[in-house]
Specification:
Layout lengths: L11 E7 L4 E7 L1 H9 L3 H10 L9 H28 L10 H14 L27 H4 L7 E3 L6 E2 L8 E2 L1 E3 L14 H5 L2
Antiparallel strand pairs: 1-2, 3-6, 4-5
Helix pairs in contact: 2-3
Length: 197
């Protein structure tokens, strides 16, 4: 065995089964073996559980096989190991703790039963946040005050944009043809006029 932390010393004595003698015998054990025996159970248990119920993949592409192994098989196996250790910490009876295969099947059923994300629902209108995009820089004051060139235009967009007038948090469908800034034009708000004064 190779280790960057432990070596052979200090050795100790441990009891091991001998097929030759048909009984336990005392053997010398290097420090690296002692540490391995004390801390084993994580990677070994994961590898052992993975070998029982592997997911079948028809592809031979190594990238797909690695992704399937790491993102699905190892993740599910480690989740079951955490679930089992959590059940043990909660003193849950063994009969109430799902076995590895049952855990995988239950997880698959839950993923299949979960409703798909529907972003076309009208209920999600309030939760909608427009995607982040590069902001158009504010034009210079001399460009903003060119007068008749600044005309409002109604934009045919699904979701209103935030008004760019200082201090206004409203949403607008109206945009200035020159500045390309969305500004409010309503009975109570005069953001378009105030912006160009």
């Amino acid at each position: 065995m190779a280790s960057t932390v432990y070596g052979r010393d200090p050795e100790d004595i441990c009891s091991r089964w001998s097929n030759k003698d048909k009984g336990h015998v005392q053997v010398r054990r290097p420090a690296v073996i002692r540490e391995y025996n004390d801390n084993m159970g994580g990677v070994d248990l994961c590898d052992r559980m993975l070998s029982f119920y592997r997911m079948s993949t028809r592809t031979k592409k190594w990238t797909s096989r690695v992704m399937m192994h790491l993102h699905f098989e190892v993740a599910i196996t480690n989740a079951w190991i955490q679930y089992k250790s959590g059940s043990k910490a909660l003193n849950r009876p063994a009969k109430n703790t799902q076995q590895y295969l049952d855990f995988k099947l239950h997880l698959g059923e839950e993923l299949l039963d979960s409703p798909p994300f529907d972003d076309s629902s009208e209920d999600r209108e309030e939760e909608y946040q427009p995607p982040t995009k590069t902001r158009i820089p504010q034009p210079e004051p001399s460009v903003r005050r060119l007068g008749a060139r600044h005309m409002p235009e109604m934009r045919d967009i699904k979701h209103a944009e935030r008004c760019r007038s200082k201090g206004c948090n409203g949403k607008a469908y109206m945009r200035c043809t020159k500045c390309k800034m969305f500004l409010c034009i309503t009975k109570k708000k005069t953001c378009f006029q105030d912006y160009h004064r």
